[in-house]
Amino acid sequence: MTDSESFLETVETENQTPLSRLGSSKSLYAATEGDIDAEPVLRATADAEYAAWQTFAGWADDETNDDVREAFETTAAEEEGHYETVLEELGTEADDFEPGETPALHDSLRERTETVERLGGFVGRTLASDRSKDQVVGFFVGDADPQTASLFREFGDDLDDQLERALTLLEAVCESDEDWDRAEDAASGAIEAAYGEYVEVLEGMGANPKPVC
């Protein structure tokens, strides 16, 4: 029987390459389609936060496990707060901001209908988002904007809490090795969706998705 610690270790090991590349400087280049400046970075971040808010709110609406539903509601509220904070940084009202297309990661997550798979996807999404968030922090540090960098570090702290939340719930709902396997497939699927879009965008711009060593 797997536990959450070995589950997390397996997911990170099996997805080492895509997670590493999603945590490279090229992830920001892909997210902004090559326009790495403060406003495009904030807009890309707002898109991601909005998509996460909608995903978790949607899951909460039809979740039958009370503890899991509460976790999804909490996460949705955190992501809504992140979204509103980023809009404040942009100086934009919510009514005036039109989010871009839903990221492939969240299209993948929204296809999950079972609790075990959703929690697995939750873990995969959090691992991928944690890597990309580090690049946003690094950008604002390099842009001599420590206040905004600190803001995104706080977002990263929320991701840490979300990961712990998801792993604790997986321990509660996984009753067999098969459940853990389905959760692992969902986690890897979420990471693969994010990485696939990263590769597609970079190759579309004529860039090599592999990081420059």
UniProtKB/TrEMBL annotation:
InterPro entries: Ferritin-like, Ferritin-like_SF
Region of interest called Disordered, as start-end residue ranges on this chain: 1-25
Gene3D superfamilies, alphabetized: 1.20.1260.10
Name of the molecule in the record: Rubrerythrin family protein
Source organism of the structure: Natronoglomus mannanivorans
Native organism taxonomy: Archaea, Methanobacteriati, Methanobacteriota, Stenosarchaea group, Halobacteria
